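To whoever is covering the structure queue this week,

Two jobs came back overnight. Logging them here so there's a record in the thread.

Job A:
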Amino acid sequence: MPDGSAIWWPRCVKPDLGASTDPRLRVLACIKTSITNACEYSTAHTTVFGLGLGISEPELEAMLDDSCKTSPLFDARDSATIAWSEAMTKNTAQRDKAVWAAMKENFTDTEIVEISMACAMLNMINRLNDSFWTDLETEEYNQKQWDAVDGLSVEDIEAFAASFAELSAAERPAKG
């Protein structure tokens, strides 16, 4: 993973637990949130993670400005996620009926909450990184971080992350 904050990304392998939305949508929300906040640290890290999930350089470039709103690179779900993340970050979501309607049209209530939580988490992380004057690591360092999981699928990474929950459960004392 590109940075330690990425641990919350994977979903559990147990049925009905963890995130149900496509990881691509959650990372689009995080990238757009970080770009909107102009948080260099989080933008760099979420971008590396996004590239690993298959988000293209042209898609990343389109999210840097308003061209993402009309870009054919994004489908309706992508576009709704990006617009919602920007509206939440700018605190205009409660007044933007069109953005809300696009979310309701494209997602279940659960998916809306998951995408919103990804955005909210990155808003918090952006504020912390900026407040703490967090220095951005070198590009070489970040690439080495990604190389640690090179060749693994999202499913492999999620299964690995889920194993920590299993280990933790095995270490807990038995109830009784």
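Job B:
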Amino acid sequence: METHEARIKRMTMRSWRRGIKEMDLILGPYADAYIARMDEDALSLFDTLLEQNDQDLLAMILGQQETLPQFAKLLAEVEKFARGRLAKS
């Protein structure tokens, strides 16, 4: 069975090692900032999000595709975080 620490490490690495660079740059920093503070339900949802296709996730974040209902709140948070990072640069 996977320990909590191993799960966090796996999910963080998976956030940074996506199929497309754009998603690395969106999900990686978000994971670095929030994953250690997530409760079990949030971790499970984020883990499920990490299983999704990058092209679909990017299209949802950019508003080019309807967001799956189970991810709506999480992707809104991810998008807000990513836009905030861009505004600072």
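Note for Job B: The chain has a mean pLDDT of 94.

Please reply-all if you pick these up so we don't duplicate work.
Q.
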